[in-house]
Amino acid sequence: MDIWFHPSEELEKIVAKAAEDAGFDKSFEPQIRTADPRFGDFQANGALPYAKSKKSNPRTCAQILLGHIEKNPDFDPSYIETSIAGPGFINFRLTKKFLQSWLTKYKGESELKAAAKKFYDGKKVIIDYPSPNTAKQMHVGHLRPMVIGEAIRRLLEFCGADIKSDNHIGDWGTNFGILIYGIKSQGYKLDTSNENSLEELESMYKKGSALAKESPEHAEAARAELLKLQSGDPENVALWNEINKVSSAAFDRMYKRMGLKIDMTLGESFYRDKVSRIYKELCETGIAEENQGALVVFLRDHDRFKTQPFIIRKSDGASNYASTDLATLLYRVENFGAEEIVYVTDGRQQDHFQQLFLTAKKWFDAKGYSLPSLRHVWFGTILGEDGKAIKTKSGEPVRLRALLDEAVSRARDVVRAKNPGASEDEAEKIANTVGVAAIRYADLSQNRSGDYLFSWDKLLAFDGNTAPYLLYAAARIHSIFRKINRSPYGDFEGASEIETDTEIALAHKLLSLPAVFESTLSDLRPHFLCTYLYELAGTFSAFYNADKVISDDKQAMERRLMLCSRTLGVLETGLRLLGIEPLEKM
Ligand code: ARG
What we know:
By secondary structure, the protein is an alpha/beta fold. It has 4 domains: about 5-95, Gyrase A, domain 2 (2-Layer Sandwich); about 125-170 and about 265-380, 3-Layer(aba) Sandwich (Rossmann fold); about 175-260, no CATH class; about 400-575, Isoleucyl-tRNA Synthetase, Domain 1. The chain has helices spanning about 5-20, 45-55, 60-70, 95-105, 110-115, 145-160, 175-185, 195-215, 215-230, 235-255, 275-285, 320-335, 350-365, 400-420, 425-445, 455-460, 465-485, 500-510, 515-525, 525-545, 555-575; strands at about 30-35, 40-45, 80-85, 90-95, 125-130, 160-165, 290, 295, 310-315, 340-345, 375-380, 380-385, 450-455. The strands form 4 sheets. A 4-stranded antiparallel β-sheet has the order 1-2-4-3. The chain has a 4-stranded parallel β-sheet with strand order 6-5-10-11, sandwiched between helices. A 3-stranded antiparallel β-sheet has the order 7-8-9. The longest helix has 24 residues, at about 235-255. Arginine binds near residues 131, 133, 168 and 328.
């Protein structure tokens, strides 16, 4: 038997096949669950409801199934023991031979990746993040789309998706009129090489906006600048280009610091010549209608959206967020063959995306286009210690750059205290990794759809579900291998079969990784992976405290080193998927 990467999924196939061979009808479901450890690792519960519905004996039904399972050449009883329990559950226990073979086969990141490919199997995916609006400095609100988006991008890629990230920046909107007016009224000269330009642009925007509020003449003048920009006035277009240059230079520095891989940046402005086709198609299919001068979609079979329209063209004729998103969706399908699109944004955009997805479904159905699966990955707010959206003392949003700098500086103190012997360079490297990782992990380890409380002490703690704890767990395994002067990655050929309870528990934990991928993928919630890594580190500690790794019994030592190595492989793989580069020393 080939060693299954993902046992519960394979068992599901085996049981389904047995049911087919036994002549059960389509209503049968295998129902594979993790079992009470006293009886096995997994159980198949499906015989019970099936027998009931057929008015036959569940135990007999389970026995028939088991007979067929055992006949399946893909099923080897030396790897999996079976039994029938209670009224008709089938229990499966992975043997030590199975655990051992799994650990031997799935050595590390590249073997795990090759096996995990099957989840997405080359599916073409576009992931839309972090997609900020231009001409504004990045603040703490930009953290979540970056961190969550990058983790999901990495996870999907690892699991076999043919994925491209598309940064759908907001670079085309009414605020450009105000900004350009602010710039002109102040006689401000943009300098794209100046690192502080973005801050200065922000203050120009504030000036423009204050003026526009002050008198209708100023407001009118700002609108005129916008119209000039939209109709291609060379001066305003040039200014707009400069603004975007300044923005993207500042954003790029932040993306680099956060380890983001952005494949393309097609902002809202890219679609401005592509919206007319949207209006045309949605009108000719009868999906959109004119309403008080605007073009809108009423989703008649939806509770709320039958009266709350999706506005796709404003009454002044301008395109908006909705028209752009419809055009973007079509573009991604026609140009990239997208089979799935993942949008990572704030939870306040839930209505927008529901309306977008429902409208797209109608439109694609009407035109015979093939609709990709559309997923809105939304997240809650980061709260300060007072339980309100995090702000600086003066009520401004916290600058992201300042937040990261503070994280690194606090991490430096923690690292210095923990490891006073580290050289200056080493301490700096560790502090940089730990600081940013701590912020990142505090975010990812929370269920993304909730709000979470930002606490420096918690996120930098070395115990609990934190980045420092996990980084330290991995570094500690490195130090075991350093002490004996061996590589932590390898085959461990002389290893005997795993034996003690703590070894077996650790092996089980390691081979539940594929199930964790499955659950993390099912709703794109990275905190499942975090919880798993945290538990794995705990299971490893229990093993390490109970079983002596370095010992005179060579075979026992090899197998324990193998367990250390596999734990390290999974921890490092998991951390990288979360966007955290592991450390060898801490
Ligand atoms: N720029 C938007 C914002 O800052 C997010 C864009 C998300 N992507 C999209 N295709 N709508 O809120």
